[in-house]
Design brief:
Elements: H1 2-27, E1 37-42, E2 48-49, E3 53-60, E4 63-64, E5 74-81, E6 100-102, E7 109-112, E8 117-126, E9 142-146
Parallel strand pairs: 2-9, 4-5
Antiparallel strand pairs: 1-3, 3-7, 5-6, 5-8, 8-9
Length: about 150
C-alpha cells in the first residue's frame, strides 16, 4: 500500500525540481528591452579628474530596480573598472570585485576612489540576480585620467 504513495511523492518531487530548473533557466540571461541603452552622464570620455570620482549612470528604455527585485524590463548598474566585458561570463552573475562594482541598491551615481593614472570605465546592466541581460546592455567604454 505504501508503494503508490512513494511513487506519488517521487513524481511530485520530480515535478517540483523540474519547475525549479525551468525557473533558474528562465532567469539566466533575462531578455533586454530592444531599445535599452546604458551610458555615462558623467564623467565625460577623456576627462581629467581627481579622486574620488563622481560617476553618474544613465539608462534609457529600461527601469532601475534593486538587486533581489524581479521586475520585467528593469535592472541595476555594474561599473567595470579597467575590466573588459569580453573577459566576463555574461551568462552568470557578475562577480563583485574591485574591478566589477555592484550598485545593487539601484544607485544611479556613486563616488569612487581611483588611483592616479588612466582608467577605462564601462557600465553593464544586470537583473535582480546580477546576470547581464541578453543581449547585454553595456555602455561604450570611456577613458578617464585621475591626477
Amino acid at each position: 500500500m505504501r508503494f503508490p504513495m512513494v511513487c506519488s511523492l517521487g513524481a511530485a518531487l520530480l515535478l517540483a525540481l523540474d519547475g525549479a530548473a525551468a525557473t533558474a533557466a528562465d532567469t539566466a540571461n533575462p531578455t533586454a528591452q530592444p531599445e535599452a541603452e546604458v551610458y555615462f552622464i558623467e564623467p565625460a570620455d577623456g576627462a581629467v579628474l581627481t579622486s574620488p570620482v563622481t560617476v553618474k549612470f544613465g539608462l534609457r528604455g529600461m527601469g532601475v530596480a534593486p538587486a533581489g527585485v524581479e521586475r520585467a524590463g528593469t535592472g541595476h548598474h555594474h561599473l567595470l573598472i579597467d575590466q573588459d566585458v569580453g573577459e566576463l561570463d555574461l551568462g552568470l552573475p557578475l562577480p563583485a570585485t574591485e574591478r566589477v562594482r555592484h550598485f545593487g541598491a539601484g544607485q544611479t551615481e556613486a563616488e569612487i576612489e581611483l588611483a592616479p593614472g588612466e582608467h577605462r570605465l564601462t557600465l553593464v546592466v544586470g537583473d535582480h540576480l546580477h546576470i547581464p541581460h541578453d543581449p547585454p546592455v553595456t555602455s561604450q567604454t570611456i577613458t578617464i585620467t585621475v591626477e
